[in-house]
Specification:
Layout (H helix, E strand, L loop, with lengths): L3 H16 L3 H13 L1 H23 L2 H7 L1 H23 L17 H13 L2 H10 L11 H36 L1 H24 L9
Helix pairs in contact: 1-8, 2-3, 2-6, 2-8, 3-6, 3-7, 3-8, 5-7, 5-9, 8-9
């Protein structure tokens, strides 16, 4: 059985990641603001399926592939860092916008909303790094099946991520209105988010740890 400390640890990691602006948050917020909560929730359903795909892959030992092919893991990590730096630049540059700034988007049909949510999640570098590098470190083979522990830890991450993202979808419109009416708050929020993105990118790029396969 998975250790309680491991569950708490992965929950805190998941919370920190989901609160850090990234592809999932940007897509969910943009859809919720421009097309309504229903569109945001349909997109979130696609994100949830993406989480499940990563979870199944993690339980099947996907991290082992990155252990056997270190350059592949390095490419994933550096690619994620570059993408986060690009998001940070878009936020911090003169004339940059906040993730909560309404951006005109053409309405999408339910199937496309679901598909785009799924694709956004699968291509999210933060989620890839979480399942490839971090989750295996919370698994203790002494406590039983590695696959079962991976599934339980992954489900913990999914519950935290979907809960927070769901709240973001439901409140995105209200937050956007609040920031629109208060330019100073909007500016502070934009710089905070941009700085967090840049800091996360630098931390990922500077991290010299290798992929860890669950024994």
């Amino acid at each position: 059985m998975v250790a309680a400390g491991a569950v708490v640890g992965i929950a805190l990691v998941a919370l920190g990641l989901v609160l850090t602006p990234g592809p999932n948050m940007i897509y969910l917020v943009s859809r919720s603001i421009t097309q309504g909560r229903r569109a945001g929730l349909l997109s979130l359903l696609g994100v949830a399926v993406g989480f499940l795909i990563y979870l199944v892959a993690a339980a099947a030992g996907i991290a082992t592939v990155f252990v056997l092919v270190p350059p592949l893991y390095l490419a994933v990590k550096l690619g994620g860092a570059v993408y986060l730096l690009w998001l940070a630049w878009r936020t911090l540059r003169p004339g940059g916008t906040s993730v909560f700034t309404p951006t005109p988007l053409p309405p999408d049909r339910p199937r496309r909303l679901f598909t785009m949510g799924l694709v956004t999640c699968l291509l999210n570098p933060k989620i890839a790094i979480l399942y490839v590098s971090l989750l295996p470190q919370f698994v203790d083979p002494v406590r039983g099946s590695v696959a079962v522990q991976s599934l339980l830890l992954g489900l913990t991450q999914i519950i935290v991520a979907l809960t927070v993202n769901g709240l973001i979808v439901l409140s995105a419109g209200s937050v956007a209105t609040f920031l629109t009416r208060r330019p100073t708050w909007a500016k502070v929020q934009r710089y905070v988010m941009g700085s967090v993105l840049a800091g996360l990118a630098v931390r990922i790029a500077a991290d010299r740890s290798r992929a860890v396969a669950a024994p």
